[in-house]
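User: Predict the structure for this protein chain, please.
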Amino acid sequence: WYQRRVRGFEEECLHLAACGKNQMLPQNPEMPADLYTSCLTTTVKTALHYWFHQQKITNIHIIDCIEYLDNIPGKYSARSTMAGELDWVLTAVLDTLAWQIEPDYARFKELFRNCKPVGLLFRGHILADRVMRAYNVTPVTHPHLPSLAGHPLWRSWDLALDSIMTELSLRKVRPTRPALHGQISTFFFDQLTEFKVNLTQYGKYDKVDSRQLPVLLQMLMSAQYREETLELVGKFLDRGPYAVQKFLDVGILPYI
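Assistant: Here is the predicted structure, written as structure tokens:
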């Protein structure tokens, strides 16, 4: 009875661990001391530091960006600023990866939708899986989440960082350079275009690739993209019950 009770309790628990057994935590003086916790709690800043230390290996000019790592202009809560844009893009990337990790949508809702703090931690784990594998460490979770450290979507995140850091470097060289209005990276425009192309490649009642639905949810919160995004959402939903269920699974209701 006791063993059955313990097993049942373990199944109900959520666990996040920085490394597997027989592994040592990374000790890099240029990165946060508790790298895993930093990925979970200060996601954007840790992603910035990881990007910088990976880039400087091959790009000697990247050193110009070091002063901006902890001082990105703007607020993370304001999407119209550089800091807010980075936070917005990274949230979309992590949410999209989470959507692809879990074919069990009940589990997806449990980990990434039902409780906001839990969702933040597990999205941070997705980042940690990429970052810590660079130091030969493998974070683990219960329930198990497969690794997406090599997913192509990470290239879109790196490109967004490249765009913003390049803009900051140019402003440093030319202080009189006028500030850009609107978003600097093309991440959301590219994702919107790709989804639009996907819709045209299938028949009216064919099942369409739904990997980008979390990105569409993020764009619904932006006045800049809302009208076009709603149009695409409508075209997707026109495909019938399958499409409606997909949007319900990804959690569209709080966004509309």
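The mean pLDDT is 84.
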